[in-house]
Amino acid sequence: MKTRILSSVCAFVVCLASISGLVSCKKKAGVKGMITAKPLAIKELGEGFKEEHLPDTDSIRALTGTIDVCLDFEGTQAGWRALAKEYERLQGGGVTVNIDDTYAGSTYADRLNQELVNTNTGWDIVEGNLGYGNTPTYCIDMYPNVASYNPYCGKDVKWEEVLKPEAYRTKEADTSKKSIIMNTEIMQTCWFINDVAFNAAVEKGYRNADGDKAYPITWDDLIRLCEKMEEANYTNPLGITLCNASIESLQFTWLLRVYGDYYYRQFYQYIMGGSAGSVWENYDPKATVPEKLSGYGHKYSKILALLFDKQCDFGPRYVGFTSEVYIDFVTQLEKMKGHLILDVDKTEFGDLRDKFETQSQGKSSPQILLDYQGFGINYEKAKTTSFDVGYFDYPTMESGTFQRGLKKGEKIVPSETITRDIGGNGGFLSIINHLGDATQNELNKDFVKFVLSPYGQTVYYKGLASANKVPKGLSTVRNELVVIPSEWTSFFNESNKTIKFSGDVDANVFLSWGVRYTCGETQVQKIICDNWRGLLMDGLADGQQLSVTDFVNLWDTAVEADARTLTTKSKWPNDVWTNPNYDL
How far apart are CA 301 and CA 573, in angstroms? Predict the structure, then answer.
């Protein structure tokens, strides 16, 4: 249960965030009755807010207690403080909402995983996607509440009536009846570019694959653009960070997700139900969400055979982590080496954004940045003589060809395969389950219901806009029910013409079976950061610098160790991957 100090001294103690974590002076949660405060008037919320979605104050209970919102806010604190202030007002002063932004980046993830397993934690609302597999065990399932009445959404309005499915599904293809993570934003990402540096590269002869003086359309275009920027004295222009948080869960892992999906989605046709050797005829490499096509339904035994049995003799044969497929994937990413930003391993994502937007390091600043689409609102407003932002979609990788395996001489990735975005959702809110403290849990759930309502999201947007801040993406509350600040609409409308949502890559089951991690096991987690830095960073000491061959061998060993651990836990045969027809 939550840490509480119940002596009379408590009222005079200031809650501090110290080096040991959040030190909360908790007020025991309870219920006072019904609230008496009224919601903001329509004119205060903005033109377009629908009156029927004002909070039903006749049905909202007046609560007491303290809620600690502990997130990696990434610049959205102003919006959260607006939410906290309005929730406290509606509650008549009986509730205090602390917005704790002590931790960010990899330090946040590390601290979160300590707090999730701490039975006396003071944390309440957290960013569940960074829970290293702990989140389902220690957090509350909100799915039963989704289909229920939510008074913050209006009189007699069920919560699900105002939400997009992405709000309560972790992945687009996830149909499980659990919502351990509630998502506040529809995520799109894109590549931003400083047009001043781009034009300098064009002057040095840059052209894309179509021969045009235009943004990259292929991965090799992107690398060639970096080279031409460097000829124009823009050093280390590629804004990808290799800090721990980026590799494990943020910016760099977007590349693993997008391009891992691009390389491995083609093998869907071999992992469908039925006996080994049968092919799923419905697979379409041009489908944005092939996981939703009729007949899709994979068999893990076939995935294991393709990824771990080096003597695999069905379908496309072995395509695991020392295969031509994975080697080519890693080789593509290695092309970034030498072009990545200075201090690439030490720069957190927020600092990277600042360096791009302000060009604070002159021509050594990042000139090309992979980021959430929403941050483009700020980048567009930051125009100077040395900075003017443009944006483009994920470039397609032109793969190498098979040299010895299946389809010798043909491209490893079929040319008609589309490149999908990370898609899905973000703003990953989870509620820590304080065992034995049902009243605190109900208070925390009530606050999340408020946050993810048309009213709450409108308050959040107003708070962000008033502080000249932006969201990462648009709300998972139905957008026509939320008042979007007028200064944002033109950017979202214009950028959506260029940046196309094209499917949810995380529905690709190969990503969780070795391309990114191994179903929550630990060996890959232990080496992932050091390995990618060893491959992509310059100037490392002997033994730290990795070739592609070094990398894939180390990765193969770690993934197989994780797979064997999983096999033991699941009581499968030790050689389970030699039988693609095994019933798991």
Answer: 11
Does residue 389 sit in the same domain as residue 416?
yes
Confidence of residue 92 (pLDDT cuts 50, 70, 90): very high
Taking a C-beta distance cutoff of 8 angstroms, is the pair 98, 122 a contact?
no
Does residue 8 lie within any of the structural domains? Answer: no
Say whether 366 sits in a helix, a strand or coil: coil
> How many CB atoms are located within 10 Å of the residue 441 CB?
20
- Residue with the two structure tokens 């076939």: 302
Cβ-based neighbours of 569, under 8 Å, separated by 6 or more: none
The enclosing domain of 294 has a CATH number of 3.40.190.10
- How is 28-94 classified by DSSP, letter by letter? PPEEEEE----PPPHHHH-TT--GGGS--TTSPEEEEEEEEEE---TT-HHHHHHHHHHHHHHTTTS
What pLDDT digit, counting tens, does each position of 236-294 carry?
A: 999 999 999 999 988 999 999 999 999 999 999 999 877 877 889 889 998 888 988 88
Q: What letter represents residue 72's amino acid?
A: D
194 and 169 within one domain: no
> Residue 184 belongs to what H/E stretch?
strand 182-186
584 part of a folded domain: no
- Same-domain pairing of 366 and 462: no
Domain count, the chain: 2
What pLDDT, in 10s, does the model give residues 179-196? 999 999 988 899 999 999
Q: Counting beta carbons within 10 angstroms of the beta carbon of residue 297, is it exposed (0 to 12), middle (13 to 18) or buried (19 or more)?
A: exposed
Rounded Cα–Cα distance for residues 555 and 548 (Å): 10
Check whether residue 443 and residue 394 sit in a common domain: no
Same-domain status, 56 and 107: yes
Q: Is residue 24 part of a domain?
A: no
Range of the domain at 237: 190-420+504-578
